[in-house]
Amino acid sequence: MRVNRALPYAIGLLALFGAASCGSPDALSPEAIASAPVASRMEISVSGTTITPPPTQVELGVGQALELTVTVDHDDELHAHGFNGAEADLKAGKPTTVRLVGTESGVFEVETHDPALTILTVAVR
């Protein structure tokens, strides 16, 4: 009988330690993200549905930052997948700079919302 009472506690401990071990040991600390070196700078303009320069892929190392300045001809919103949901309000004619830090490997899109345009992809390696 005693073993049966201990079983739920043992399962709970295993679940707790199992979940704790799922965290990425390579995850960047908030300090590392804030001080990430700028590896690349880009300026992009959007006029209607025309993106200048044309959409391309930027290579970025984990722990490196991309400084992206976007100018649009109408109010819009910028969204960067894979960068902790980085978003920025874009105002017509006003350059907006966002800093994107590669915290995990993958290929991620940076896009506007209205119209929905992919202005850039970022490959974090």
From TrEMBL:
PROSITE patterns: PROKAR_LIPOPROTEIN
Signal peptide: 1-22
Alphabetical UniProt keywords: Signal
Identification of the protein by name: EfeO-type cupredoxin-like domain-containing protein
